[in-house]
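User: ok so my PI wants both of these folded by tonight, can you help

Assistant: No problem, let's get them done. Here's the first:
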Amino acid sequence: MAEMASEARFRKNGKLKTALLQHKALSKNGVSERLFGLLFSGLVYPQIWEDPDVDMEGMQLAEGHSIVTIGSGGCNMLAYLSRAPRSIDVVDLNPHHIALNRLKLAAFEALPAHGDVVRLLSATGATSNSQAFDRFIAARLDTTTRAYWQGRTLSGRRRVGVLDRNIYRTGLLGRFIAAGHLLARLHGVDLTTMAQARSLREQRQFFDDQIAPLFDKPLIRWLTSAKSSLFGLGIPPRQYDELASLAADGSIAPVLRQRLEKLACHFPLRDNYFAWQAFVRRYPQPHEGTLPTYLRPEHYAAIRANAGRVKVHHATFTELLAAKQAGAVDRYVLLDAQDWMNDTQLNELWTEITRTAAPGARVIFRTAAERSVIAGRLSPALDAEWRYLEEPSLRLNRQDRSAIYGGFHIYERAQ
């Protein structure tokens, strides 16, 4: 599809380029960074892969809080609206994610009923979705976002037509998951049969008998030893190096096996929509399991009523904070963005976080490896302003159903 940007478009996106490029163009690391940047300049995450229920508990999110978060697929900020925050500022450097976040917000504001929102954002083969966009949503979008969704792909279809099929099979991550399914089938394993498991015991058996042996296959070990093979997961070169450092032979196959085991075996399938997307490539039907938090009926009224409290910005986290008043923000959600940053960028970010943090403010983020990425890297003055909440960080990391990260971390402003 046309959302896979050309290198020229990536280079024109100065903010994205600055965030990703740390090495000279012709160096080994520089080539990897530019390849990742080219791939990341298209749609990457139709669905966010951080568990928003863990986020909200880690933040102790409450009514009236001011939040700044990275957008990604937008599922997180919509879930946060169920807690009636005072405001949410969403930032992202990827224009495709910006358009998706604005579409999802407009869907809650414009569509007549909860069932219409669920059909638009979770159903497969609902050919009326593009018509619902034309009738209810398009007029509520800004000119740029409306033009994005009404634009044509290389195949001549309107981009919004993806909602008539299955948007979660698109984007960089959707294609990576498809490639994983194909690779498994080449080794005689149909991952979609995980949907037949009716208990944690059966999930464990399927993993042990069908999935785990795949990681010993020479082809899979060879593929996972190359940085570029995991760009489809949104893992940039710096994150790959962190994961590879955990393995003796340089292959991250053992790390991926461990993370996939958690996804497959640690949570009942009916309660883990992340596992449904990974193994079945869709959300569960009502008789099969639960939908993401933001699509559940009990949260619909609150999200619809509070959607106007969100502003979506094409900006870096640091840029947005620099424009805010001191003490104006209660909660910060950094996803895994710091794994991409050098020490200078980290200290610039935390300088603005510290300046804008209200009393008792909390920062949450995830890391590819288990250890907090900011430990020992902030200036002593900044470090003294924050305390690490180790016990809830470890506990909530175990509860994160997406299972793809090594660590979940919570920092609180020191009193």
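One down. Here's the second:
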Amino acid sequence: MESRSAARRPGSLHLLAMVLMVAAFGSRYAHAGLFDDDEARHQIKELSIKTNDRLDIIAKGQIELANQIQALREENSRLRGQVETLTYELEAARKRQQDFYVDLDGRLRKLEPQPASSTEARPADEGRPQADAPRKVASDPAAETREYEAALNLFRANKLKEAASAFETFAKAHPDSALAPSAYYWLGNAQYSLRDCKKAIDAQRLLASKWPAHPKAPDALLNVATCQQELADAKGAKTTLETLVAKYPDSTAAATARQRLKK
């Protein structure tokens, strides 16, 4: 009996050792599984916190962006209002300047020599046409004045295309009229207002070259320089301003030309 018990003891001990090992492994795996669940919960919690923080940052960024957009809209509205105001003031200033020059034109014409009337008495021998002399149509100062005033009224009414056409027609129909220089002057101004600087230069140059002693000649050269500057012809504008100062040193236009040459 003792021998059999002794024989069975090693097997029992071996079996017990196996059971203890399995229990130990099972306990370890159970602990590891419990640890993995806690770690996962912790990571999920941290991820949730980070996600919420990012969402808060994005929300704040969107609010700031919306505020900036609204501020830009308000600033744009304010600037648009300023532009409209400045445009109105510029147009009003241009109209005042236009009215000033029209009034000045009327005053200057009173100082200009008037052409002799066709009805003025002539000697008997001068009244008879000669056979070899070309017949010249007599001018009518009153009719010329009406035509000129009609063109000037179009310019005053800001009907620039019609005014330019009327002044050009007048200048071609009455090239020797005392009002022809003024017609070319206003033709140039109308073309400039229509943003046609090349035609404006042609009209003003014709006035300055054909009637250099006319009161509007200095202003015509100043207008030429202005157009040249707008056409990016800085060298030509400088030459014109220097010519203006040399030919008409005491004119108001020359004073303006000196200021421009200093810049």
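Residues 115-137 have pLDDT under 50 and may be disordered. The radius of gyration is 49 Å. Good luck tonight!
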